[in-house]
């Protein structure tokens, strides 16, 4: 896999940036939702506190407020508040919504408006028997019994308007009718599967109670009763939102907050606001919203608990509030929808007793829309950053691979088909690893080329070195063969030629022998200044043609090493200095100490070193001599380098500051 594809795969790690951003937005969403829940709980407690001292708003009927929970006479009837006028005509027009209750064949719905109660009873009856108009003081046929604080009968001889009559008694026979009740009026209408009765009456006439019973008569005169009345018991309670309570709660609600007041029997006696209302200015594009929900949404919340009876409220939060504890929960706002409904419930306490609960409901979208917007910006910025980073990585990989190909091609072309190392190699000026690698290659090839030049000239150098002693030996032997009288002259010359051949062979093997013999020399402390003084005295006798001086060796300078090896290194440096200096010139040996090192320097007057050879002098078989009368194969300074490496030191060569010679430095650790 090439470098470009590798970097492309590495660039996939940039996907962690949007993932980390999504986690941050998700945590922010959780924090906002938690804050909204706490705020909603506080709102519920505040409104509940307002209602604590006014229990009569929740229970307009004092008798019901004081009654025990188990004193319910029968199934209560529940009426909602109508926002539009209701026309009493026996039809179900304007009665949208589910049936409130069902008692056998009776489907019941009721509403209140402007202090009046409206009832709609839809009865399934395949044999409708009407009242016999000949019976003036009693009623017959199918009829409806209403009970408030008194009993009323509603019947008709034919479909059309109806009116209630007071029921006087029913003892051992048919119902005995009393006066007409003008406040209760309605309409009887036949339907496809039976008939319907729509009634209207003032709430003040009911005294907080209402029950009904349908008396269904068959063809044989048998009667069957359906409804919520129990014989000889008071009428059940009529539950409806009081107008005073509604007026108090409505100002606390809003288009995004619904407040519901629940009595102790879980009936919703007041409700205001719309929790699912949309919040203006927070619309998010559907695609981004779908991506956001798919990435960030946790497990969907449960559906809200549905009450078994219309008009009541159920759920653990309601039960907790009626038990005296506030509670918070979250549910799905709509079936299959993605929006959440935050629900908070707080108890309403009066005289130390819980008389109801305040339920606050709010759509989480008005807060979570903030995270939608944040996610949209995060997604856009992340995609833009990923695109820019990917393009940058691909461009960088292309540039990097181009440089590597250039370096590879230059390396491949550095050696010709004939094995010769070519001089041209592009030395990069870049300050990175590839630039350093290119420069190292260029330096390596330069050293290889110089070394190969030296090896190619080695035969010429050896032939030059060997030809002279061989010629001396050959001429000496020839002269001895023809003229034995000059024996004392030619035998020393032959021995001198043999000694020179031995010196050549010794110099060639000296470096390897020294490297092997280094480890046999024990390292121990010795006085480097004393060694320099001894060597200075010897060098003045060995090199009388030069002026050899010593400085800085007045005090003891202890060095941990081998005195013999250091003396051998000094011998090589003095021999090198003497060979390059003119007769009568000065060679200076100086010793001085720094904070960390002891430095010995040998400086001579003579030709300067080439700039590119100052560090290569210490390599094996390297020499800058053009002409020489003695054996010099470029091994002496290499031996000095090996000795200094054995002593964990360094050897350096540099031209003098005045440009009139060269200085060699041996650096020992103090």
From TrEMBL:
It comes from the Bacteria. The chain crosses the membrane at residues 378-399. Residues 461-670 form the Histidine kinase domain. Keywords: Kinase, Membrane, Phosphoprotein, Transferase, Transmembrane, Transmembrane helix, Two-component regulatory system. It is found in: Membrane. This is histidine kinase. It is an enzyme of class 2 (transferase). Residues 398-453 form the HAMP domain. It catalyses: ATP + protein L-histidine = ADP + protein N-phospho-L-histidine. Pfam families: HATPase_c (PF02518), HisKA (PF00512). PANTHER family: SENSOR HISTIDINE KINASE TRCS, SENSOR HISTIDINE KINASE YKOH. PROSITE patterns: HAMP, HIS_KIN. The keyword Membrane applies. Its EC number is 2.7.13.3.
């Amino acid at each position: 896999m090439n470098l470009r594809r590798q970097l492309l795969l590495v660039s996939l790690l940039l996907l962690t940036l949007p993932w980390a951003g999504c986690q941050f937005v998700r945590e922010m969403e959780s924090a906002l939702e938690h804050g909204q829940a706490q705020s909603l709980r506080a709102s519920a407690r505040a409104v509940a506190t307002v209602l604590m001292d006014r229990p009569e708003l929740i229970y307009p009927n004092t008798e019901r407020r004081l009654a025990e929970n188990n004193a319910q006479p029968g199934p209560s009837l529940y009426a909602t508040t109508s926002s539009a006028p209701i026309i009493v005509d026996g039809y179900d027009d304007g009665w949208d919504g589910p049936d409130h209750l069902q008692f056998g064949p009776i489907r019941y719905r009721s509403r209140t408006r402007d202090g009046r109660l409206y009832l709609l009873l839809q009865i399934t009856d395949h044999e409708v028997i009407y009242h016999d108009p000949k019976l003036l003081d009693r009623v017959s046929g199918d009829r409806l019994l209403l009970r408030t604080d008194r009993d009323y009968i509603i019947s008709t001889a034919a479909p059309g308007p109806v009116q209630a009559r007071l029921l006087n008694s029913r003892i051992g026979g048919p119902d005995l009718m009393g006066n007409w009740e003008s406040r209760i009026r309605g309409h009887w209408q036949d339907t496809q599967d039976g008939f319907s009765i729509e009634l209207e009456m003032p709430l003040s006439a009911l005294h907080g109670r209402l029950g009904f019973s349908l008396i269904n008569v068959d063809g044989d005169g048998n009667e069957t009763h359906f409804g919520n009345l129990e014989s000889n018991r008071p009428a059940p309670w009529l539950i409806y939102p009081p107008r005073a309570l509604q007026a108090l709660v409505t100002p606390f609600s809003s288009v995004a907050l619904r407040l519901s007041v629940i009595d102790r029997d879980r009936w919703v006696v007041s409700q205001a606001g719309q929790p699912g209302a949309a919040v203006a200015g927070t619309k998010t594009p559907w695609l981004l919203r779908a991506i956001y929900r798919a990435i960030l949404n946790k497990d969907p919340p449960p559906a809200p608990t549905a009450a078994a009876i219309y008009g009541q409220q159920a759920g653990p939060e309601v039960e907790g509030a009626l038990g005296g504890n506030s509670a918070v929960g979250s549910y799905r706002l709509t079936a299959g929808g993605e929006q959440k409904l935050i629900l908070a419930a707080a108890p309403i306490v009066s005289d130390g007793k819980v008389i109801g609960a305040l339920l606050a409901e709010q759509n989480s979208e008005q807060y979570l829309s903030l995270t939608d917007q944040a996610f949209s910006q995060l997604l856009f910025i992340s995609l833009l950053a990923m695109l820019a980073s990917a393009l940058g990585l691909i461009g960088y990989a292309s540039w990097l691979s181009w440089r590597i190909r250039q370096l590879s091609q230059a390396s491949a072309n550095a050696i010709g088909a004939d094995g010769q190392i070519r001089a041209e190699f592009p030395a990069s000026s870049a300050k990175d690893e590839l630039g350093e690698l290119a420069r190292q290659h260029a330096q390596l090839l330069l050293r290889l080329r110089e070394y190969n030049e030296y090896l190619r000239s080695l035969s010429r150098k050896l032939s030059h070195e060997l030809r002279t002693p061989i010629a001396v030996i050959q001429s000496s032997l020839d002269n001895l063969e023809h003229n034995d009288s000059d024996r004392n002259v030619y035998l020393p010359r032959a021995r001198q030629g043999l000694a020179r051949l031995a010196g050549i062979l010794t110099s060639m093997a000296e470096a390897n022998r020294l490297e092997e013999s280094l480890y046999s020399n024990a390292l121990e402390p010795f006085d480097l200044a004393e060694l320099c003084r001894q060597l200075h005295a010897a060098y003045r006798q060995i090199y009388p043609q030069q002026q050899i001086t010593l400085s800085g060796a007045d005090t003891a300078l202890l060095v941990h090493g081998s005195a013999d090896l250091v003396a051998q290194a000094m011998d090589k440096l003095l021999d090198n200095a003497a060979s390059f200096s003119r007769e009568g010139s000065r060679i200076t040996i100086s010793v001085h100490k720094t904070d960390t090192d002891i430095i010995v320097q040998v400086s001579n007057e003579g030709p300067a070193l080439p700039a590119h050879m100052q560090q290569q002098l210490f390599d094996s078989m390297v020499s800058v001599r053009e002409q020489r009368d003695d054996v010099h194969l470029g091994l002496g300074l290499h031996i000095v380098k090996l000795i200094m490496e054995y002593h964990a030191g360094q050897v350096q060569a540099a031209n003098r500051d005045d440009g009139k010679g060269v200085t060699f430095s041996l650096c020992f650790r103090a």
